[in-house]
């Protein structure tokens, strides 16, 4: 087996091991613990949105034990200035992401991989490029900003379309910001995370990229 193939296999195995461990820990948490964590994460993101006043935000609908709670899109939409829009991902057959506009919880439909997505018109894969704030799901993130997803590669492809200076933020549970994750060359770094205890934290030595939020725990790495 060529050396590069062996390295790729080792990386995939290492990622799988971390993913299994983190998801097991999430499942072991109680509903009350998840609800408390979601409220804190939402408060941090709302404070950030109200400070940035973006005209376009891209986010997602958390499912199961994902941080932020299933009502996260509605909470974010309620914090946006008048006329601003919230985009949500639409999973394509090739596992890439299209995007649709949030128009309320009643217009969300079940989709592949447990996702819930907007039922309205598709806006194209490049719609995310215009967002001023992108809220990204992950299983874990390291202090370089590299994220571990579910393994489908959807957000690896979507983030390539997001300009490097766009603020990308990952909601996490406590303990899911780690020193270092196994990474592949195509992995794209995010710029900040939100955790219930530490709030909004910037990554990769860039303490100035996230404005201070009124939730009160913003800081660098």
From TrEMBL:
Q: Which amino acids does the record list as binding ATP?
A: 15-19, 147-155
**MF terms (GO), sorted A to Z:** 5-formyltetrahydrofolate cyclo-ligase activity; ATP binding; metal ion binding
Keyword Mitochondrion set for record = no
**GO biological process assignments:** folic acid-containing compound biosynthetic process; tetrahydrofolate interconversion
Q: Which domain of life is it from?
A: Bacteria
Instruction: Name the residues that bind substrate.
Output: 61, 66
**Which UniProt keywords are present, listed alphabetically?**
ATP-binding, Ligase, Magnesium, Metal-binding, Nucleotide-binding
TM annotation in the entry: none
Q: Its catalytic activity?
A: (6S)-5-formyl-5,6,7,8-tetrahydrofolate + ATP = (6R)-5,10-methenyltetrahydrofolate + ADP + phosphate
The record ties this protein, via Pfam families, to: 5-FTHF_cyc-lig (PF01812)
Q: Does the keyword RNA-binding apply?
A: no
The cofactor(s) it depends on are:
Mg(2+)
Region: Disordered; residue ranges are 198-221
Q: What is its EC number?
A: 6.3.3.2
Task: Please state which protein family the record places this protein in.
Answer: Belongs to the 5-formyltetrahydrofolate cyclo-ligase family.
What name has this protein been given in UniProt?
5-formyltetrahydrofolate cyclo-ligase
| Organism name | Micromonospora nigra
